[in-house]
Every structure is written in structure tokens, then in C-alpha cells.
Amino acid sequence: MGLIGVLLSFAAVQNVANACKCFESTLDERYRSATAVFIGQISKIDAGPSESVRYYRIRPESEVWMPTRDPKKEHEGVAENRSFTNESEVLEFQIIENLKGESKQPIRVFTSHSSCAPHAQIGQRYLVFVDENHTTDICMGTRLLAQYEVDDVQAIRGFRKTEQDNIR
């Protein structure tokens, strides 16, 4: 293998090492755990505040780390805690279709500059899952709308209808 082959192999290993590791969840689980779900178009991207975020392992043997700001949740399944300085972005969305939670226009959502952050581009449409801290990432399910199947979006509309029927 020549020098170029070695460099390409190293780059591939680096990309895998830096890849986001998400806890497997179904579309229904992502919908239920989110406080807001919507289809939106990014209208603005701002630099967010730098902050220290605590992470915990979801199981002691797991390599998956989840961020938390909730001190109670922090101790569920903790093997060890880590604290990182996290540069974030604030994504401003115009809501095209509200599927759960608040629907004020525009909505501002925080995301980090980590490998788990959605690749945000102004003008692009996303299916967005937001937590109680107004944060999102790809592990929560946020992706370009085009990356979802039409059936997935229809299923989410069905989850909303079921929620509304249960309230009545």
C-alpha cells in the first residue's frame, strides 16, 4: 500500500472514530420523548453560547454518551460523568408544519458543533425533534426532511392525531 493508501485509510478511521454514536430508538420513541416536533426551514444560524455540558453513559458497559442538564437524570445508569466545553449554534426555524408542542414563529433551537449536530444549512427543510431544553441533534431524530421516507412523516402525523384523540 502506497503513501496515498495509508493516508486514505487513516482518514477513514478518523471519520469512524469521530462519528456520532446514538442510542437506538424508534420513531415513536423519539416522538414521545420530544417536547416539540415540527417540519421547519432554517432561516438563520447564529453562534450560541459556550457552555459546559455534563454527559453520562446510558449503561455502564455502553460507549454511548448522552448530554444532560437534569441532575436527577444524570445519575441513571452512570458509569462516569464527563464535562466538555461545548460550542453551540442557534438554529432559527420557520415552522412549516407543527407536529407536536409549541408553534410560535420563529422557533430558536440550540445544537452543538459535535458530530451529532445536524449539518445545518439556511433554506433547507428539516424534520426537527426538540427536547425540554430547546436543544436538538441527530440522535434525537433531527435530519433533513428529504432523508425521511414519506411513510415516516405520515406515521408522525398519526402519532399527533392519536395524542389529540386521547386528550378528548
Measured between the Cα atoms of the first and last residue, the distance is: 67 Å
Low-confidence stretches: 1-17, 77-84
Helix content: 10-25%
CATH class of the domain at 22-49 and 88-167: Mainly Beta
What is the makeup of the main sheet? 6 strands, antiparallel
The proportion of residues in beta strands is 35-45%
From the spread of the alpha carbons, the general shape counts as globular
Instruction: Name the CATH architecture of the domain at 22-49 and 88-167.
Output: Beta Barrel
| Count of alpha/pi helices | 3
The CATH topology assignment of the domain at 22-49 and 88-167 is OB fold (Dihydrolipoamide Acetyltransferase, E2P)
Alpha carbon gyration radius: 18 Å
- Count of DSSP E strands? 6
SSE string, helix = H, strand = E?
A: HHEEEEEEH
Structural account:
By secondary structure, the chain is of the alpha+beta class. The chain has a domain at 22-49 and 88-167: OB fold (Dihydrolipoamide Acetyltransferase, E2P). It has three helices and six strands, in the order ααββββββα. Strands 1, 2, 3, 4, 5 and 6 form a six-stranded antiparallel sheet that branches. A hairpin with a 7-residue loop joins strand 1 and strand 2 (65-68). It starts with a helix and ends with a helix. Residues 1-17 and 77-84 have low confidence and may be disordered.
